Amino acid sequence: MQQETRRIIFHVDLDAFYVSVETRGNPALRGLPVVVGADPERGMGRGVVITCSYEARKFGLKSGMPISRAWKLCPTAVYLRANFELYERVSEEVMGTLKGFGDSFEQTGIDEAFLDVSGRAADAEEAEQLALVVKRVVRSVHRLSCSIGIGPNKSSAKIASDQQKPDGLTVVPLDSPAAFLAPLPVSVIPGVGRKTQAFLKGHGIETISHLQAVPGKQLMTWFGKTGVWLWGVANAQERIPVRAREMPKSLAVERTFREDVQEFGRVYSEAEDAAHELAARVAQAAVRFRVAGIKIRFRHFETHTRERTLPGYTDSEDVLKQTAKDLLREFESRNEAVRLVGVRVSGLERDSSTMETLGP
Questions:
Q1: What is the Cα–Cα distance from 317 to 32, expressed in whole angstroms?
Q2: Which domains does the chain have, with CATH numbers?
Q3: 333 burial class (0-12, 13-18, 19+ CB within 10 angstroms)?
Q4: Which phi and psi (to 5°) does residue 282 adopt?
């Protein structure tokens, strides 16, 4: 039987990306607690923290926290509204640099990517030296820091990249990746959220070593196809290739009425239908979104857009429908005929829970 070629995978994660880009443009922010998100309006603002600097995290701030709560914890922080066009432009520049270091490259979010470097490093030591070069180039060319995880597969590399942030470098032993994973909590597995953690804890499973002891068939009984994925990740048997896939910046569905609509109930109904179609496209693209928005055009082509940053990434159709309805409500009282309505999502990342793995 032919032995499988050893794989060496990098997961590169740009540290506090939005904040780092803002700090790069304004060095006076360096070392300060910085929050990217909504305007706190002296503690009365709505919206959430999209991300924050490591200095802000020392005050207990974190992504998804209501901006009013963040203000109470750290009123002296610098609060900035997100500039997604800037972040996307910088991301494209950095990803262009990273592509040159891998045999294959896969961007999975605005600030993270996988590189297969199996043909460029013979062992873990060479891989570590290559990763140090990547970090130096990203810092010198783009004035940003990144954390890199090195492992024999994508999931272990991604888990490793989170272990020593910021500016970290963690190597998973290529000969014993399961042993490296064993003591870590199940929460480090990409796609394992609070509900899954609570379910597993109810069955006495709190660490990956506990998960490794559960038969694959049992995991499939509990979680279906996701159980196969969990088994593969926990036992370091995942073998998903790093492959180039275009990462869409946004997805949208618009509806133009045959005749201008005066009754706003029809606008809501059409937006809900558009959201349903868009949710299907999100699922087909195997992504999750962080920002949901709407577009509305009135009779005389006056057009408005609104968007909302959500507490976390999601692919929920219900969340999309409710957010669209909430954003459209602003325009209901205008009592003007509507020509077009649309629903849009952006701030996309790959949905790791949809990955196929080598099962038990």
A1: 38
A2: 9-15+86-242 (3.30.70.270), 17-85 (3.40.1170.60), 250-352 (3.30.1490.100)
A3: exposed
A4: -60, -45
Q: What is the CA radius of gyration of the chain?
A: 22
SS3 content of the chain, % helix, strand, coil (to 5): 40, 25, 35
Residue holding tokens 């043909």?
A: 119
Is 112 annotated as catalytic? Answer: yes
Distance from C-alpha of 136 to C-alpha of 144, rounded to nearest angstrom = 10
One-character DSSP codes across 219-247 = HHHHHTHHHHHHHHHHTT---PPP-----
* Segment-wise mean pLDDT, segments of 10 residues, the chain, 360 residues: 73 95 96 86 69 94 87 93 86 95 91 95 95 98 97 96 95 96 94 87 96 94 89 93 81 90 93 92 84 92 90 87 94 91 89 45
CB 62 within 8 A of CB 78: no
What's the pLDDT score for residue 63?
Answer: 83
Tokens of 30: 């360096």
**Count of H-run helices and E-run strands, the chain:** 13, 13
CB 355 within 8 A of CB 317: no
Catalytic residue among 55, 106, 112, 272: 112
SS3 353: helix
